[in-house]
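Researcher: We plan to redesign the surface later, but first we want a full-length starting point. Tokens attached.
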């Protein structure tokens, strides 16, 4: 019963400070952005309602940015307050170790990491909605003429015109190399292709040829055809991906595959994709690092712990940029570039925790 009361007390103190900052931080972000961009919004003829709605859509992004810093501040003040008021000493006198007393903090870190992962998938959706409200998507390319596209299974499509906004393909020819006679080569041509979300592509008015080897060929004509395996959306066929911040983890993976099949090296997209997992995980890492620092009674006590923790957070953000740039250059694998900041801070946390007198 005593342990449960302490768990609830530690969790409540952390949650109170965490919520205070994570709610107020987006407000500060919004006020700063309004000061910088309000004139631009008004000059474009946007109404106050449109601008306000755009900030509503941007709130998940600001909340995602706030998670690591809010967790840092909540951890430091929770631990330092309990240390300063001798609650930590009282718990140790009662046979409760440092690690057991503050066990709720890593658990909350895991929960907040999961919340961050959820926000990282929500943010691309709300970013795109914000761009639509602000009219920033109007000038993006929505069509493509006379190009060749290679699908994931090796099929090659020659497309005369793609209208991504309307989900239409005009004049398409497909070639598939087979292994006759087991797998026949195939070729089809169609006048029109229509895309429907959830149903995929439907091609109209065309012909299909199957080549079985030794000069054997079969010809079919069709009014409609639903190709199996051609799952790319009109936006993906444009080969003009949105900003990484406007794409979720799975969508980034599909664009990476498309660029790879076209012979490109999408290193930047690969790094950004891995960072969508690594950055939310930083919340847990920073909590583990801040816990032992907040107990320090040297060089200023808790103030020392707060200062060093903030410095480590700034260092972590710089490390993300530096490691990301190195990964984009190809010097290190994208996975390493995304996760090495977490690994270094986690190693520091392990060293500090090992020195705690429990």
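Model: Full-length starting sequence:
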């Amino acid at each position: 019963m005593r342990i449960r009361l302490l768990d609830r007390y530690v969790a409540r103190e952390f949650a109170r400070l965490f919520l205070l900052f994570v709610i107020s931080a987006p407000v500060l972000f919004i006020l700063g952005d309004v000061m910088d961009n309000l004139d631009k919004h008004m000059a474009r003829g946007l109404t106050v309602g449109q601008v306000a709605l755009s900030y509503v859509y941007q709130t998940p992004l600001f909340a995602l940015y706030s998670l690591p810093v809010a967790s840092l501040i909540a951890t430091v003040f929770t631990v330092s307050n309990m240390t300063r008021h001798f609650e930590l000493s009282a718990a140790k006198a009662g046979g409760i170790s440092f690690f057991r007393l503050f066990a709720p903090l890593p658990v909350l870190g895991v929960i907040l990491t999961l919340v961050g992962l959820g926000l990282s998938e929500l943010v691309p959706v709300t970013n795109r909605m914000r761009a639509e409200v602000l009219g920033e998507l109007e000038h993006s390319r929505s069509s493509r003429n006379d190009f060749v596209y290679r699908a994931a299974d090796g099929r090659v499509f020659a497309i005369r015109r793609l209208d991504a906004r309307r989900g239409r393909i005009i004049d398409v020819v497909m070639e598939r190399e087979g292994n006759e006679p087991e797998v026949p080569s195939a070729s089809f041509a169609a006048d029109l292709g229509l895309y429907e979300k959830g149903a995929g592509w439907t091609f109209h008015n065309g012909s299909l040829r199957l080549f079985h080897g030794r000069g054997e060929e079969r010809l079919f004509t069709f009014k409609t055809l639903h190709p199996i395996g051609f799952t790319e959306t009109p936006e993906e066929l444009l080969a003009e991906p949105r900003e990484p911040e406007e794409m979720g983890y799975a969508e980034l993976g599909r664009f990476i595959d498309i660029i790879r099949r076209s012979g490109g090296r999408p290193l930047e997209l690969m790094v950004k994709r891995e960072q969508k997992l690594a950055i939310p995980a930083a919340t847990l890492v920073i909590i583990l690092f801040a816990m032992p620092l907040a107990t320090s009674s040297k060089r200023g006590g808790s103030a020392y712990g707060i200062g060093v923790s903030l410095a480590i957070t700034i260092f972590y953000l710089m490390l993300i940029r530096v490691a990301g740039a190195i990964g984009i250059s190809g010097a290190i694998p994208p996975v390493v570039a995304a996760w090495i900041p977490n690994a270094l801070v986690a190693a520091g946390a392990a060293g500090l925790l090992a020195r705690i007198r429990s």
